[in-house]
């Protein structure tokens, strides 16, 4: 089993490579580690659009993350992790001023609930896709989160198993780049 050594403790880039023959599967590579992952149901795209179900082909820095503190203890990480509250939502309505931003309930426009009933967002890292420099209709809520059983496709995010996320979190910092090839 590969390990990240102390020399590699601060991972600068995570590479996400597609798996041949399955557009919604990938291999996530951090130094010597290679981990299975799920991608968007439509595979990857260089022309990301809201609701297309594709994972953007891009280099996306990690900004911060969210954690379901009621389900697990805060893992070691150099990345800031905020505890998810029931009122936390993520706006995915392109015409709204809060598009691709965290908002609070009640909120009528289209949104994602951060405190999901499943475990996908128990650890949810925000990728800088259309966040610091927003463009309407170019995609929202592109996260690095936990995978469904069998690595079922996402809506455009990158997802890994909980055990793998817990292995890599200590090596991540704000600005670590996730590069989807």
Automatic annotation (TrEMBL):
Pathway: Cell wall biogenesis; peptidoglycan biosynthesis. PROSITE patterns: LD_TPASE. SUPFAM superfamilies: L,D-transpeptidase catalytic domain-like. Residues 14-181 form the L,D-TPase catalytic domain. It comes from the Bacteria. InterPro entries: LD_TPept_cat_dom, Transpep_catalytic_dom. Keywords: Cell shape, Cell wall biogenesis/degradation, Peptidoglycan synthesis, Transferase. Belongs to the YkuD family. This is L,D-TPase catalytic domain-containing protein. The lineage of its organism: Bacteria, Pseudomonadati, Pseudomonadota, Alphaproteobacteria, Hyphomicrobiales.
């Amino acid at each position: 089993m590969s390990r990240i050594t102390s020399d590699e403790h601060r991972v600068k880039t995570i590479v996400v490579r597609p798996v041949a023959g399955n557009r919604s599967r990938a291999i996530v590579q951090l130094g010597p580690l290679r981990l299975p992952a799920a991608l968007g149901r439509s595979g990857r795209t260089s022309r990301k659009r809201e609701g297309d179900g594709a994972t953007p082909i891009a280099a996306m820095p990690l900004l911060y993350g969210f954690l379901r503190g009621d389900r697990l203890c805060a893992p070691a990480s150099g990345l800031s992790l905020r505890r998810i509250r029931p009122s936390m939502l993520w706006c995915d309505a392109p015409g709204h001023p809060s598009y691709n931003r965290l908002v609070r309930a009640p909120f009528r426009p289209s949104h994602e609930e951060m405190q999901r009933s499943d475990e996908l967002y128990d650890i949810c890292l925000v990728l800088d896709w259309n966040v610091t420099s927003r463009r309407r209709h170019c995609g929202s809520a592109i996260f690095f989160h936990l995978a469904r059983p069998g690595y079922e496709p996402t809506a455009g995010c990158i997802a890994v198993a909980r055990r793998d996320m817990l292995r890599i979190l200590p090596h991540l910092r704000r600005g670590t780049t996730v590069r989807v090839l």
